[in-house]
Amino acid sequence: ESTISPSKVSVCPTFNLLLLVPLISLSSCRPPAKHKAWSVQRTTSERRETRQTWEGPAMTKTKGKGENAFADGMVVLGGLQVESVPIKAAILALGTIATCYITSSVLLKHTPLWLPDITHCARGSPERYFFRIGMSISCCMLIGVWVTVATWAESVCKSLKLRQCCTALPNEKASLCGAVGCLLLIMGSCCIEPGDEMPWTFHTIGASGFFICQIVAMCSVTSNVSKAVRQAEESGLVAPAGVSPAALSIKHWCIRAFWALLALEVVFRIVGVNGGTGALLEWLLTANVMVWVISLSLDFQRCKLYAAFVEPQQGLPSKATAQ
Question: Using CA of residue 157, residue 163, residue 164, residue 169, what is the dihedral sign?
Answer without folding.
Answer: positive
